[in-house]
Amino acid sequence: MSVRPLAIPQPSSPPHDRPSARRLLDLDWILLLATLMLMGYGLAMGYSITVEDRNFTGDVGQQMLRALLYGVVGASAMAVVALVDYAWLGTLAPVIFIGTLVLLAIVLVVGSSTLGATRWVTIAGFNFQPSEFAKVFMIIVLAKWFADRDVRSPFTLLGGLAILAVPVALVFRQPDLGTSLVFFGMFFGMAFVAGARLWQLTALLAAGAAALPLVWGFLKEYQKARLTAFTDPYSDPQGAGWNIIQSLIAVGSGSLTGKGLTHGTQSPLGYLPIAESDFVFSGLAEDLGFVGAVILFALYIVLLFAALSIARRSRDAFGTYIAGGVAAVFTFQIMVNVGMAVSLMPVTGIPLPFISQGGSSLISICFALGVLQAISMRASAGGQRSAG
What does each C-alpha distance from 199 to 195, 205, 277 come to in angstroms? Predict the structure, then answer.
């Protein structure tokens, strides 16, 4: 009886594409529409939270102009990236990997510190957070690794984890526990899309769980407090549980339709912490209520289904894995950010895509979605994708 050999994904297609106006017909218009609507949603919430923030002493108009500028830069980056044959990204994967490590290392050397964390580099008055771009760059690197190998081989999976080890360590040193966890969410999502067996992923998760006591020893005390407080925030209402309790109050007070934009009370009274990023969903739920949250989730679902559709239509394994990685990172960040706002997840400082304020986050998201559009625009160029 003959044994059918394992199907090995084909390498990513060689670069050969030239920009063409006709490619615009192959844009994923659903993805584009969801992206623009989410960017608008984020601008509206950014305005509301800025007005409500009693600690904000600058000019609201200038702040919104800054946010709009980030949006224009992000949209421009998305358009430019979409015009480039994404196969070039696979060819340049080793350079992208080294560049990512250099960027993350620079942060530790010359980065500016805020609230005890060194995560930003200031360029021309703008704060630049390399770890946000590192997430997108490592999706590309990992997609190339999986596309050129049999992902069901233990060596491929362990090799992928080894590739992530250095950037994860550099991000963890900042310290940024939340982004470190995003890398692992990315890995498992991409490995699943690439065809890794369920028992292999389960075994890796079990190994990770077994290593938790060791990792726990490297965490700072405030990180340990955050990771445990969500199970019972009322056991330390004035300490580690404070943020979660105030977040729950904000979410609950929004009721069905919310208090209205700029009419929230938790942030103006100084109760809702870090309302512009970590707990932005709490501010959204207070201002726009259950209806506003449902609209946000609906837009996210449309965007994620569009990403998975592109993964299915991709002309090669490399494009499929990139699209799967982007969907995995989005899903992980949405689940964790919303989960911590309603006390279902630990507080880890993971931003909510499009809604949390931050130029680096928005531009890196647009870059990733530009790559998805590049994949969509070339889905028919290579014919039927090789099985794998």
Answer: 12, 10, 36
**pLDDT at position 19, please?**
53
Domain count, the chain: 1
Distance in angstroms (rounded) separating the CA atoms of residues 107 and 105? 5
More confident position, 281 or 120: 281
Strand pairing of 112-114 and 117-123? antiparallel
Single-letter amino acid code for the residue at 246: Q
pLDDT in tens, 226-265: 778 888 888 888 887 888 999 999 999 999 999 999 998 8
3-class secondary-structure state, position 98: helix
Instruction: Identify whether the C-beta of residue 351 lies closer than 8 Å to the C-beta of residue 361.
Output: yes
Q: What is the DSSP string of 50-92?
A: HHH-TT--S-HHHHHHHHHHHHHHHHHHHHHHHHS-THHHHHT
The secondary structure element, H or E, covering residue 261 is none
14 lies in a domain? no
In whole angstroms, give the CA distance from residue 279 to residue 104: 25
Encode pLDDT of 331-349 as tens digits.
999 999 999 999 888 888 8
Q: Beta-carbon neighbour count of residue 280 at 10 Å?
A: 25
**Which distant-in-sequence residues (6+ apart) come within 8 Å of 122 by Cβ?**
112, 128
- pTM of this structure: 0.90
Of 180 and 382, the structure prediction assigns the larger pLDDT to: 180
- Minimal CA–CA distance to 19: which of 382, 374, 364, 376? 374
Cα atoms in the 13 Å half-sphere on the side-chain side of 380: 8
Domain range for 206 is 25-377
Residue 2 inside a domain? The answer is: no
Q: What are phi and psi of 112, to 5 degrees?
A: -95, 145
Residue 109 lies in a domain: yes
Residue 163 domain-assigned (yes or no): yes
Q: Where are the alpha helices (DSSP H) in 173-218?
A: 177-194, 198-210, 212-216
The rounded mean pLDDT for the chain is 87
Type of residue at 99: G
